[in-house]
Structure formats: C-alpha cells, structure tokens
Amino acid sequence: MTIAKKIQSSIKNSSLIRKMFEEGARMKAEIGEENVFDFSLGNPNLEPPPKFKDVLLDLINDPVPGRHGYMPNAGFPETRQAVADFLSRNNRAEFASGDVVMTTGAGGALNVILKTIIDPGDEVIIPSPYFVEYNFYLDNHQGIPRIVPTKNDFSLDLAAIEDALCEKTKAVLINSPNNPTGKVYSEEELSGLGRLMEKAGKKFSRNIYLISDEPYRKIVYDGIRSPSIFDIYNESIVATSFSKDLSLPGERIGYAAINPAISERDIVSSGMILSNRILGFVNAPGLMQRAVPYLLDVSVDISPYQKNRDILCEALERFGYRFVKPQGAFYLFPETPIKDDVQFTSILKEENILTVPGSAFACPGHIRIAYCTSQKTVERSLPGFERAMRKVMKKP
Ligand SMILES: Cc1ncc(COP(=O)(O)O)c(C=O)c1O
C-alpha cells in the first residue's frame, strides 16, 4: 500500500451518509428515479432564489477588468464589510470587516477555525448526536473530540458538559439548528452554556472558545428564532455558509466570523486568514464572494421544507414512530422500532426508502430522514414507512 494508513482506514470507515447516497444512485439507475425515496443526503432540492441568477448575470457582464485574479486571503474587502454590516444589523455587537473571513463553505470555515485555535491534544467538546465530519476536521488539526450526549429531547445536557470541561478543553462546538435532530438550542440553554464556559475558563486559566456551526440558522419553523451566540458569550466564533439557505452547497461559499469582544481579536483574525491560505483554500470562490453582498438578506422560501416536516411528522406518528419534532434544518431523527438502526435502514431500503442510521451521528437506535426533497417523494414514501414499521412489529 502506498497511501497513508490513516486515510486507508478512514476510506474503509468513511461516511455511512455517502454510502447511502451512492447506493441511491445505483438504485435510481436500476428502478427509476421516481421509485427511490432518497432521504440520505442534506442536499437541498429547492433551486436558489431567482435573485441569485440575476446577480450572477450582472457580475458576469461586469466590464471592469481584473475581476478574476487573486485577492486578499480573507476575501474581497467589500464582501467582508457587507457581511460585517449584516452581522451588526442582526446582533448587538458592532462588527468590522476584520472580524470576517470568507471561506469555502461552513466546512472550510470550521477547518480554518480549528487550525487557528487547536494545539495537538486539545479537546473539543461536541454534544451528540452530531455531524461526524467534525471527527475528521478535528483530526486534521490533531484535536481530540470529547463527545457529550444531549438529553432525550436533544437539548444540551449542561451538567454533563460541565463535567467534561477540563484543563485540556479548547472549545465547545455546537450546531443549531442541528443536523441530524432539527433541534434549535434556546437562549436559556445557550446562556447556561456560556456561564459554564466562563467559569471553566477562569478555573483553568485559558480561553475556551464557543464555535457555533450554523449553516441552517435561517431554516427555522413555527416563528422560532435561533439565538445569536455573539450576544451570549464573548469568546465565540461562528462558522456558516450559504449552502443550505440559498441552496448553493456546490458553490462552496461561507464565512467565519469572530465576536468583536473576543480576546486578542487581531491575532485570532490574523490566524484565521493565514489558515485559510495555508490549508490551500487561498481564498473563497471569487465570483460567489462578489454575489454575497446582494444576497445576505435573501433566502430560499422554506415553506416547502416545513410542509414536508409536517406531512412526515403527522404520518410517522400515526404509524407508531417516536421522535422529537424538529424546530429547524431539514432533518427528522426518529427512534428505530428495533435496536439495530443499521438493520432498520436495510428494512426501509427494501421499501426503496434511503435513510441514514443514527450510528453515523454517534447516536444508534435512530435514523436520519433528510426531508429536503420534493413533497411528492415524501408523500409517496409514506406507505413504505408504514410497512416497515408493521414488518418489525410483526403486524400483517
Ligand atoms: C452541521 C453541518 N455543518 C457543516 C456542514 C458543511 O456545510 P458546507 O457545505 O457549507 O461546507 C454541513 C453540511 O451538511 C452540516 O450539516
């Protein structure tokens, strides 16, 4: 073997989500796209808002030369300023362009942040279930994940987090609205977390960062608001993107933003800019960066997602599935009626329904249903969900 042992083993154990996605492609080729109910990947089915295309056409026709060259590693100054102004409008703090680094999606932002703050062996507390790419991202920077399960309703278990905070803790990494649960952490929970972290920071005499991964921030239902961590905890950094709320995951555009009240603001910012460069990103995609200032207050119409959520929740409850109703993102995370979640995904696959086992999110005994699909897919899948439940309950 010529490649690194670590990558060899990662390939072997790599994402159950991707495996399902690939299985879906195979099944679609075999039995037709319309007969496969693919809830495996969080790939938004909605088209980007029309304004996105209008803005792109204007940008492409812009006659000013030199638009496609290198730029500062943090991104175009006017884009960073527009994002800073947007953040100032939506938070209590006043942001400057230096607080923003444009990145290749939220995944890029997380890697930039982790590279900037992690020393080898530093621990990062992650409430589970969680997006398991975090394990790879932490490993990239020799950080150690410290997984702390959430409560039964997927809210933060503050007592467990308090127990996990120690002299090695460098950060707590949260994701709200959450993938895979759809949970939105409340202001009260986040304030409680902030207080714990402040106390721990003093006790262990070190900065403990709160990293908030929030690409689903604008996808919330029933009038709920996703609270701002900037207003809650000073040592905070947000990683986000336009992948989900503008349906642009393939365009790889996002940003990292630091709290203006963070300690050593300039050093953190300089570290992130350097990290963006030396991770090989160099800078976030230029054309997308130029589009961002026109799109900050725009998002896809999320009502089709809410409709899908409601249809699924109503039907699955009727069939006997147990779950916490999601408040945001586009995922439902029901308990499996049998203990073995991988086996239950196979039973669903017999109904041509593709879901991801909870094990892929460090939470066995569940499945994740990504309902960012057409309403027709949701509706046509329902009899299969019912049959799968009957099968394991041994009902005719
Ligand atoms: C919780 C979470 N964080 C980060 C990402 C990565 O987002 P991006 O495509 O913007 O890199 C995803 C993508 O599904 C996600 O679910």
Short description:
Helices cover 41% and strands 13% of the residues.
The rounded Rg comes to 21 Å
What order do the strands of the largest sheet run in, or round the barrel if closed? Answer: 2-8-7-6-5-3-4
Looking at the structure, what is the overall shape?
Answer: globular
* Tally of alpha and pi helices: 13
Poorly predicted ranges: none
Please count the beta strands (DSSP E, at least 2 residues each).
Answer: 12
Give the names of the bound compounds: pyridoxal-5'-phosphate
Global mean pLDDT: 95
Please write the string of helix (H) and strand (E) elements: HHEHHEHEHEHEHEEEHHHEHEEEH
**Major pleated sheet:** 7 strands, mixed
Termini separation: 51 Å
* Overall SS class: alpha/beta
Q: What is the beta-strand fraction?
A: 5-15%
Residue share in helix: 40-55%
General description of the model:
The chain is α/β, with parallel strands linked by helices and 396 residues long. It has helices at 5-13, 16-31, 50-60, 77-90, 105-117, 133-140, 158-164, 187-203, 265-278, 286-291, 303-319, 341-350, 375-393, and strands at 37-38, 100-103, 123-128, 144-149, 169-175, 209-213, 236-241, 254-258, 331-332, 353-354, 356-357, 367-370. The strands form three sheets. A seven-stranded mixed beta sheet has the order 2-8-7-6-5-3-4, sandwiched between helices. Strand 3 (123-128), helix 6 and strand 4 form a beta-alpha-beta unit. Helix 5 crosses helix 9. The longest helix has 19 residues, at 375-393. The relative contact order is 0.17. The mean pLDDT is 95. It binds pyridoxal-5'-phosphate (PLP). Pyridoxal-5'-phosphate binds at residues 42, 105-107, 131, 175, 179, 213, 215, 241, 243, 249, 254.
